[in-house]
Amino acid sequence: MSSEPLTQCPPLVEVEIARKCFADPESHRPRIVLEDLGFALRAAEVVAVVGPSGCGKTTLLQLIAGLDRDFEGRVAWADTRSEQPPRLGYVFQNPRLLPWLTLRKNIELVLNERAHPRRQVDDLLALTGLSGFAELHANRLSVGMQRRAALARAFAVQPQLLLMDEPFVSLDAPTAQQLRRLLIQIWDRTRPTILFVTHDLREATMLADRILCLSSNPARLIAEIPVGIPRTERLNETATERRHTEIRSRFERLYA
Amino acid sequence: MTPSLPAQHPLALRLASALSLILLWQWGAWQAQSNLLPTPSAVLDLAWGELVHGPLLEHLGATLRRVVLAFCIAMLVGGTLGGLMGRLKTLDAILDPWLVLLLNIPALVIIILAFVWFGLNETTAVIAIALNKIPNVMIILREGARTLDPDFREMAQSFRLGWRKTLLYVTLPQLLPYIAVAARSGLALIWKIVLVVELLGRNDGIGFMLHTYFQLFDVTGILAYSLSFILVMLGIEYALLQPLERLANRWRR
Asked: Which residues form the ABC transporter domain (chain A) (predicted)?
C-alpha cells in the first residue's frame, strides 16, 4: 500500500486563498498577509510549510482549520460541501491544555463520550511517555510534557487532517527528536494527512513528503520542494542528512 | 529570626480581637446604665428566648428565603447578561446605558417604586432585592468574559467541543474567580438590602421585627434580632462560600 505513488491519492482538501488581510493596528489600513496561495493536500500526505518569521504561516493554518473565515478564497474539502474538515487535530504553538483539568481529562475532553476512551487515552499516554502523570493537573507538567500532551490530544481524535504549528520548537534536541519519531510511528498507524509549520529545514526533510516555501509581505507560494525520501527511510539519519544538504542549498538560493 | 507570637497564632489573635469587642461592649453598658445600650448577656438572653419560645426562627427563615431567591435570580440574570455583554460588542452597547442607570439608582428608590408599582407582595420584594444586585453582577461578569483566553476558544473550536462542553469545561472555569467575587460581594449587598425591603413592605422577616422593635425603642430586641441574622450570614460565608471557593481553586499552583 505504501508503495502507491502519492499523486494517485485523491485530494483531501484544496486551499485557494486569493487574499487575506489584517487591519494594521496603527494606521487601521488593511495589510495583505496572504495572497494567491493555492495548493492541495492529498490523503495521508505529510507537508511542511516554511517561510520567514511572521509571514503568515500560523494564519494559513487558522484559515484551513476554519478558525478564521474572514478571507477571500476557499478551502474545499473532499466528500463534503461543508467548509469544515470532517475530523481535525490541531497542535498549537503553545500547548493550550486546560490547567483546571487533569492530563487525562484534557485528552478525554476532545473525544466522543460514547467512545469509551479510557484505553485509547492510556495507549497514547504510554506512547508519549506520560503514563505516570495522567492524574496531574496540566499546569503541574513541564513545558516539554505539556507539548507531548498536546500531541497526544491531537492524535487522540484520530484526525483526518492534523495541523501542527511548530510543534517541536523550544524543546531540547533529544526530546524533539523522540517526538518526531513518535509522529512517524503514529502516522504509520492511522495515516492522517499532516500539514505542519516549521523553521527547521532538517525537521521538514525528515518528516515531510514535500515542502511549501512561502515568501513574506504578502506570503505567496514561491516553491514546492518534493523531498522524496521513502517513509521507511525516514529514521535513517544519513539518508535524511544527505537530502537535507541538497534542500538547504536550494532553500538558500530561494531566500537569497 | 523566630516569627512573632501573633503570626504563629493567627486564630488566637482573631479570637482575642473578637473577645475584646465584647468586653468593650460590656464595659460601655456598665458605664451607660441605660436601656439604650443593654449588656451582651441581656441581648443573648433575649435572642435565646426568642429562638426557643419566640418567633425568631420563623422570621429568620422568611428573610433567608428571600436572600437565597434574590441571590440566585441576580447571579443567573446578571451573570448571563454580563457574560454576554463581555463577548458581544453590540449587546454591550445596547445594555450599557441601562446598566449605568440601574447601578446609580439608590436601592431605596428601586424598592419604593417596585412596591408602589407592583404591590406589597413577596414576588415584588424578591425582585426588588435582586434588581439592586443584578448590575453589580453584570459588571463583574462582563469584566470576566472580556478576559476569556482566545487561545482556549480556538482550541475548543478546532476540536469541535460543541457549546455544552465549551461552556462547562472551557468558559465557566475561566469565569469562576469572577463568579466567586460576584457571589461574595453580592451576598453582602443582598443581606443589607433585604432588611430595608422587609422594613418597608413585609410583615415577617428580620427587617419587619427590627421595625417593630424600633417603634418600641427596644434596643435589646434590635440587637438580638440583628446579631442572630449576622451570625447566620457569617456562617454561610465561612462554612459555604469560602470552602466552595477553595475547592474551585484547588488546581491553582
From this structure: 12-241
